[in-house]
Amino acid sequence: MKQKILLLGSGGRECAIAWKLSQSELLDSLYIAPGNAGTAQYGTNVPLSPMDFDAVGKFAADNGITMLVVGNEDPLVAAITDYFKANEALKGVKVIGPSKAGAQLEGSKDFAKGFMARHAIPTAAYLSVTADNIEEGFAFLESQKAPYVLKADGLAAGKGVLIIDSLDEAKSELRQMLGGMFGASSATVVIEQFLSGIECSVFALTDGEHYQLLPVAKDYKRIGEGDKGLNTGGMGTISPNPYYTDDIAKECMEKIFLPTINAMNAEGRTFEGCLYFGLMITPNGPKVIEYNCRFGDPETQVVLPMLDADLYDIFEAIYNH
């Protein structure tokens, strides 16, 4: 049976996914909402907001959509997977993306850090701070060495992380973040110990039990030469990552990948979809910087061209485990 797929999103990531899905022999129609000039080469752009669940659901029902691929994180964190599964008219649509409970790994940095602490998954030391314990936050900053890392708890379009060299500036920025710099997303701020090393981006496509790791990438987030500028959602990327050795891969599997998937199951948050591991390879071994609940942008643009398999077949396997 030929498939009709609706892909949500409008970035370079979605262009890469659309390009790869368009190669499937099982594809009948590909729609991208809202899409961009690049995605229009591989399917039909439709003027829908991924956050308008009713409009997305109506389009899916009216157009016989058989699979919904959620590219960006916002609808996943807002529970679009749960919305489709709870709607009788949409239960036949295969949604590729985790439930709200699974997406909380990305939706709340405070949750993610607590999750790693509960399950002994290696990560940086941290403290979660609100307006109520800001003095404790200042004390934690004073206990750390520069640079200082401040992260908005919620989603901030990849812009909610500040890396600051001055202690006084870090304290000032903490006040501003808690005061609404990133809106409700920074009502809680996670202060982290700065990790020095080599970044690695690893995607695991998983049905919650089995998984397939994709080629490993390395992305660059800070503006300007020498990692001196502001943090961004991503300035560029390469794959394969030349620093991701077999020994590091083995350690990541034993201490990070399998423990994360197993712990999500143990907490009743079975993760189905693309689980992204942002890693730092430090002198003390690999540690998790962040989780994402979807493909990364820009990493997807270099990872998918290295994939020989039919991406639709992989998505089908995730759904029909």
How would you characterize the overall build of this protein?
This protein has helices at residues 12-21, 53-62, 73-77, 80-86, 100-107, 109-118, 134-143, 167-181, 246-266, 300-303, 311-319; strands spanning 3-9, 27-34, 44-45, 67-70, 94-96, 126-129, 148-152, 161-164, 189-192, 198-206, 211-213, 218-222, 231-238, 273-282, 285-292. With 321 residues, it is an alpha/beta fold. β14 and β15 (285-292) form a beta hairpin. The radius of gyration is 20 Å and the shape is globular.
Question: What is the strand arrangement across the widest sheet?
Answer: 3-2-1-4-5
Poorly predicted runs: none
Question: What's the count of strands?
Answer: 15
Give the SSE string: EHEEHEHHEHHEHEEHEEEEEHEEHH
Identify the overall geometry.
Answer: globular
What gyration radius follows from the Cα positions, in whole Å?
20 Å
Tell me about the biggest sheet?
Answer: 5 strands, parallel
- Mean pLDDT score, rounded? 94
Helical fraction: 25-40%
Beginning-to-end CA distance, first to last residue: 19 Å
Q: What is the percentage of strand-forming residues?
A: 25-35%
> Count of helical segments?
11
